[in-house]
Amino acid sequence: xxxxxxxxxxxxxxxxxxxxxxxxxxxxxxxxxxxxxxxxxxxxxxxxxxxxxxxxxxxxxxxxxxxxxxxxxxxxxxxxxxxxxxxxxxxxxxxxxxxxxxxxxxxxxxxxxxxxxxxxxxxxxxxxxxxxxxxxxxxxxxxxxxxxxxxxxxxxxxxxxxxxxxxxxxxxxxxxxxxxxxxxxxxxxxxxxxxxxxxxxxxxxxxxxxxxxxxxxxxxxxxxxxxxxxxxxxxxxxxxxxxxxxxxxxxxxxxxxxxxxxxxxxxxxxxxxxxxxxxxx
Length: 281
Known about the structure:
This is Myb/SANT-like domain-containing protein. Helices cover 55% and strands 4% of the residues. By secondary structure, the protein is mostly helical. A two-stranded antiparallel sheet has the order 1-2. The longest helix has 24 residues, at 200-223.
């Protein structure tokens, strides 16, 4: 999708892609309401856009650009649903054969028509995935938005964390035994074993060892690079290859920062990279 002029505002393809990606990730994150994007979302998009491209856009200009994008999305769907059209789902291409293509742009008398449709037919539409996420129904929601902020989810507490929280905390069976001992009747050594013949002290030691091993593995994993790091950097919109390459090299030498970067939402990613570039390039 090339640069355009709409209502006096010039949008380059890169700027438009930035807006699309930002809003598509808001949809995937569940921030969009049934009535559309709230003003706070449009303001956030404008702020990120302005900081990245050093321009001055308002939420109203973002809203107007959305209207233009929606018209494109509707027209694309109309063209791909025509009888005889083939929709390439993988590459987002509306394929018309020669006869269908010719008749679409010229009537029987040879007069030209539908000139504006040329940008949509027999050409890849790489932005369609974002538009489907932004404007489509539930079938499209979140499907194409994950290139810039994977994953947008909150993990539940895992077993390792639960184990670490329980270190040094006696179990209910141990408390029962302590209460019995406190009554004045010291249990015999044989009584210290549970019904299965296991020594609670040995069990506690084993549990502590396992928890320590888990903690060591967790610490070691933090020193390793997170999966999907390259894709997370490479898919960011609006940055030059040299800029992304330099920030990627920085992350390779700072695994802790890399982990935080991969887990961060798109807005935070863009802010982190922009701040790094301004300070180092």
